[in-house]
Amino acid sequence: MEYCGEPLEKPFDELDPAFAVKLLSAVGRFHGCGLTHGRLRPRHVRVVDDTPILIDFQASESHICGLRMMVIPGTTIPTPEEFGCAEMHDLVCRMAVWERETLRFSTKSIRKESIWSVEDIKRFIWKGYQSGWERNRLELEAEHLYKELCKERILTWGTDKVSERTIRRDIFEIFP
User: Fold this and answer.
1) Minimal CA–CA distance to 125: which of 144, 140, 147?
2) What's the fold here for domain 6-94?
3) Helical segments of the chain, H only
4) CA–CA separation, 113 vs 95, rounded Å?
5) Would you state the pLDDT for residue 173?
6) Between 171 and 32, residue with greater pLDDT
7) Is the pLDDT of residue 34 over 90?
8) Terminal Cα-to-Cα distance of the chain (whole angstroms)
9) Most confident listed range (8-22, 51-65, 156-170)
10) Can you give the pTM of this predicted structure?
11) Distance between CA 97 and CA 90 in Å, rounded?
């Protein structure tokens, strides 16, 4: 049997960005040959000299790749239909390249567009935590998440583009 390289030891969301680009290119070339892998998982990728090698083509099928978008890190996740290729969309999602539209807080997913104050996050704290260290921990986590979201908005939109609703005294405390 021919040497196919070392197994990929990391999940897709922990890959070095340069290697992730190489993997996306390899899958794109495969799609360019008119095939889809069908079961693309880290265990189906080998590494030879920092080059990804796809293996295990039992689930491969004929495929005309309709990819119509570039992968731009940090942008909002498009739908698979907008992206144009379900397998590539799934891979990029698992690589965690795109910006999530939601924040995870406690056991909830909160849409970023609905958050304009720390209170918008804190309202998701379960009412059973009326006192105690768990409620305090969640309040601190809410404050941290809100500050991170504010930083992200200022870096993404620029201070002159951030809406009046967002620019409040608590944001300026983040950037002294």
Assistant:
1) 140
2) Transferase(Phosphotransferase); domain 1 (1.10.510)
3) 17-32, 80-83, 86-94, 118-122, 133-157, 169-172
4) 23
5) 40
6) 32
7) yes
8) 62
9) 51-65
10) 0.59
11) 11
Number of continuous H segments (helices) and E segments (strands) in the chain: 6, 7
User: pLDDT value at position 137?
Assistant: 84
Do β-strands 61-62 and 35-36 pair in parallel, antiparallel, or remain unpaired?
A: antiparallel
Question: Kindly report the CA angle at 16 between 15 and 18, in degrees rounded to 5?
Answer: 125
- Domain spans in the chain, listed from the N-terminal domain onward: 6-94, 102-172
The residue type found at 73 is: P
Single-letter residue type at 6: E
8 Å CB contact between 147 and 166: no
pLDDT at 164 over 50: no
Return the amino acid letter for 11: P
Which helix (H) or strand (E) is 111 found in, with range?
Answer: strand 108-111
Contacts of 81 (CB under 8 A, 6+ apart): none
Mean pLDDT in residue range 4-26: 89
How far apart CA 132 and CA 136 sit, in angstroms, is 7
